[in-house]
Amino acid sequence: MLAAENAKAESARDEAVQAMALGQKKLIKVLKSSKSTEFARAKACQRLAVMGTKEAVPALSALLTHPKMAHYARFGLEPIPDPSVDDALRRALGQLEGGLLIGVINSTGQRRDAKAVEALAKLAEDSDTEVAAAAAAALGRIGTPESAGVLEKVLTHTKKVAGACLDCAERLLSQDNKEPAVALCGALLQRSDLPEGLRVLATRLKEPSGSP
Fold it and tell me: Which domains does the chain have, with CATH numbers?
């Protein structure tokens, strides 16, 4: 039994080494082939996170619906500096649900895709509370005046987006975009049920603007 397990582990190591030595075109073939193991595909995704270009986006995005491979696909997609990644993630926002959707929302937030604000605005009020929370967090990371406006609207009926609001305000201030940041902090401070720690942070962010 132990010998069999050792042989399996050694085979997996060899497969990983082989995948890491492949160029992009061959890695894409690994992703597309029905004969590839999930392990090989996962390693291909990891390698493409380092060397992937626009050419790899279709093969990676095709795995966003795969229950076991979606995480690796997002890992491969997120670092690729091409707008086609954002296009693919935005399409997926309207096609997925549950954990797969949350994963794509998180990746969208990591890439700070301002074009996704409209889709995320709808998801921030989704009946699935985990989806809604992920969408709010993504809006906070995107940190545009438009995302601030969405968060301010959602804030009127739930304090659960307070952390995302603070993230958004910090992002806006880092871009010297004070007006929407101050407005968002002001909306936070209007909530009487805001925890004291968050109230202190909102006050600190609001004060540098010169507002009372």
Answer: 115-212 (1.25.10)
Mean pLDDT of the chain: 91
Q: Cα Rg for the chain, rounded, in angstroms? A: 21
Q: Among candidates 158, 156, 163, which has minimal Cα distance to 199? A: 163
> Which pLDDT score is estimated for 209?
45
**Residue whose C-alpha is closest to residue 143's, from 176, 119, 170:** 170
Distance CA 85, CA 104 (A): 11
Whether residue 19 is predicted with pLDDT greater than 70 in this model: the reply is no
Q: How many CA atoms lie within 13 A of 149 on its CB side?
A: 6
Judge whether residue 208 has pLDDT over 80. Answer: no
How far apart are the C-alpha atoms of 32 and 29, rounded to whole Å? Answer: 5
